[in-house]
Amino acid sequence: MAAPSYQAFDARKEIMTTTAETTRPATATKRELAEAAMRRSWFPVARIVDLDRPQTATLLGTNLVIYRAGNGTVAVQDRRCPHRGGDLSKGEVHEASIGCPYHGWEFAAADGACARIPSLADQGKIPGRAAIKTYPVELRYGHVWTVLEDPIRDMYDVERWRDLDLEWLAGPKMDSAVGVGITIENFRDVAHFPFVHKVSMGPSPEVVEPLDVTREGLDIKMERPLNASTGEWAEDGDAMMYYECSAPGLATITYDYERLGHRIVAGFPCPVDYETVVIFWGVANEVGYKGAGLDECLRVEEMVYREDLPIVDGIEPREIPWDAEVQEFSVPADMFTLNYRRSFVELMNRVKDDSHDYAAV
Ligand code: FES
Ligand SMILES: [Fe+2]
């Protein structure tokens, strides 16, 4: 078996070694493949707790409205009304539709078909094509998730959590001026603790032990003991931390405390565009968890996030330099990052192999 390599991640090499195809019509940059892969991946666009009124999100440049109709259907749809461009998120939610605030046209929550035009005497004359695009919906981990185009991967389903009875609490949305990849890499990076999280975590060792990282397809895992320090969690005692990420956009830590049970923090950035995200995130405690309540867990994890944000927002370039725009150097502490990038490249290759739009690169 080859020794692990910590050299700068070479996305070009990774892609070239995974395809022999050379005859497709166009040559895609890695950035284009990354963006195409994200258009076919699930992202959160709203918190379930906010669905008492229509929510807005922008996912890779697409403006969306998210709402729960009176009959309980949760819809993710294009926000623009096809009549004269009214903003549907400012409209009224009906039993099975949403109405435009401008002239009251109603669009079905189930499929986006125009269900009513108030100004029209004969409702049989509704133009058949006057519909809004409707996207798939999954409700999971306290959030509403959707995908813009034909999914290239399944919705996230963390195996470790399937047998846990979890209660979720969604955190406040946070804006960050970097892409999904940089955001995920920050979430599970451990070498920055002694520099960025002195207040929330207390002193952490600077030297990072050899990391126990494994990768299986799109999923990357790492186990690491948490030694109670002097930070906010000091009273809770020792725990095992299970870091589990999945490309492109899920990052989680499950804490298994010797004395308390399981608690979780998870981050799932939503790409507003390629280099900007809204970070959706949340905490969960297993029912019967003997440590801090969800509100307190949220408070401390938010403190951690807010220590990260000013540092992460200064990173250049603002997304992983897939096309080797800049040089990067890696050390053993970056092992998880390198494996996450390999998973992301695997996702890009899925897109490339599934499409005739891209040539081998
Ligand atoms: S702009 Fe929406 S109903 Fe006219
Ligand atoms: Fe951090």
How would you characterize this protein structure?
The protein is of the alpha+beta class and 361 residues long. It has two domains: 43-146, Rieske Iron-sulfur Protein (3-layer Sandwich), CATH 2.102.10.10; 159-346, Alpha-Beta Complex (Naphthalene 1,2-dioxygenase Alpha Subunit, Chain A, domain 1). Helices cover 20% and strands 29% of the residues. It contains seven helices and 19 strands. It has helices at residues 11-16, 30-39, 180-188, 193-196, 198-201, 294-312, 335-353; strands at residues 43-47, 55-59, 62-68, 74-78, 92-93, 97-99, 106-108, 114-116, 134-135, 138-140, 143-146, 166-170, 174-176, 212-216, 219-226, 239-246, 250-257, 261-273, 276-286. The strands form four sheets. Strands 12, 13, 14, 15, 16, 17, 18 and 19 form an eight-stranded antiparallel β-sheet that branches. It has a four-stranded antiparallel β-sheet with strand order 2-3-4-9, with no helix packed on it. Helix 2 (30-39) crosses helix 7 (335-353). The chain is globular. It starts with 10 loop residues before the first helix and ends in an 8-residue tail after the last helix. The model is unreliable at 1-5 and 16-25 (pLDDT under 50). The structure holds FE2/S2 (inorganic) cluster and fe (ii) ion (FE2). Residues 81, 83-86, 100, 102-105 line the site of FE2/S2 (inorganic) cluster (FES).
